[in-house]
Amino acid sequence: MPVLPPGYSIRRLQARDFEDVVETLKVLTVVGDVTRTQFEETLAYWKSVTLKVGAHSVPTYNPHVVVNAGGRVVATGTVLIERKIIRNCGLVGHVEDIAVAKDQQGKQLGLLLIQYLTDLAHETGCYKVILDCDEKNVGFYEKCGYRRCGVEMDHRL
Amino acid sequence: MPVLPPGYSIRRLQARDFEDVVETLKVLTVVGDVTRTQFEETLAYWKSVTLKVGAHSVPTYNPHVVVNAGGRVVATGTVLIERKIIRNCGLVGHVEDIAVAKDQQGKQLGLLLIQYLTDLAHETGCYKVILDCDEKNVGFYEKCGYRRCGVEMDHRL
Ligand SMILES: CC(=O)N[C@@H]1[C@@H](O)[C@H](O)[C@@H](COP(=O)(O)O)O[C@@H]1O
Ligand SMILES: CC(=O)N[C@@H]1[C@@H](O)[C@H](O)[C@@H](COP(=O)(O)O)O[C@@H]1O
């Protein structure tokens, strides 16, 4: 079982992570000129959306970060929990926006973060956790316990 | 351009659609023993989750139905709107749970519903709309204007 390097930890994303997270996400895709205010508004929105599971209220958005011993964010990712009618009004976890800082690759941080988010979703009661990725990342996600199950399609204007 | 058959229309899902929707969803997958109360609670939850887009508050869950002239639900589907940090705190539409009643296939109801949900997501400001499907449905979604863009992977216990 892989473990985090000494001093590293996984925790929820916080407002003070603004610069590090924006930087880390650039490894994944276009981030754009996100201001601190927009970032904080997004975090506040994410916090405001909850889901009732039995007697508990749980967050719908679950953004997390891996931080190193110095407190710097070195990886980020989230799992969004969707409530459906199918599967006995089942829950589905959507793993999204996984990014590991370029200089931190090879430490299994991505794998550990994905396992963390996947466990979180199953503990919340999700009957499945899904994600979409490039063909070239299939092998990596298989190491995380995922299996190829369908085709992702998109519509852009 | 395909159009709905005479008397058919698309509207938001309502509580009175309970039996028809549960029946229609069985074409897609396992629904289970969803009670009227659970259905209504899910609808109420979906209504309660909103998103601020500029000055407006828009629903995060957008369940819709196609009804025939007699008011019977003949197709159903939804689009969930996710707020991200990437892409300038962009929005992504997730088209989910598309099902057309068996005796209503061949009328392009699925295509019209998907175009409706896709337009709704783009009008809300989504930079892309995505969906996951079986390999065998790729041709259908291509007719709806979608392109293959990645691999869906899942994790089930
Ligand atoms: C597992 C994972 O992290 N998948 C990501 C997805 O979450 C992210 O939103 C998208 C961004 O790409 P885009 O900028 O082209 O939408 O890339 C990948 O599909
Ligand atoms: C575009 C579309 O409708 N895709 C559906 C998805 O929305 C649905 O949730 C899933 C149910 O399958 P499951 O019961 O195996 O989770 O099937 C398909 O992937």
Comma- or semicolon-separated keywords:
homodimer, 157 residues, alpha+beta, Aminopeptidase, 5-stranded mixed sheet, two-stranded antiparallel ribbon, binds 2-acetamido-2-deoxy-6-O-phosphono-alpha-D-glucopyranose, Glucosamine 6-phosphate N-acetyltransferase (chains A, B), transferase (chains A, B), GNPNAT1-like (chains A, B)
Number of strands of chain A: 8
Named once each, the bound ligands are: 2-acetamido-2-deoxy-6-O-phosphono-alpha-D-glucopyranose
CATH topology of chain A: the name is: Aminopeptidase
Helix content of chain A: 25-40%
For the biggest sheet of chain A, the summary is: 5 strands, mixed
Major interchain interface with per-chain residue totals = A-B, 62 and 62 residues
Kindly provide the radius of gyration of chain A, computed on alpha-carbon positions and rounded to a whole number of angstroms.
16 Å
Please state the oligomeric state of the protein chains shown: homodimer
- Counted by DSSP, the helix tally of chain A is 5
Write out the strand line-up for the largest beta sheet of chain A, numbering strands in chain order: 1-4-5-6-7
Note the beta-strand portion of chain A: 25-35%
Unreliable stretches of chain A (pLDDT < 50, length at least 5) are none
CATH superfamily of chain A: Gcn5-related N-acetyltransferase (GNAT)
CATH top level label of chain A: Alpha Beta
Distance between the termini of chain A: 44 Å
Given helix and strand content, the structural type of chain A is alpha+beta
Order of helices and strands of chain A: EHHEEEEHEHEHE
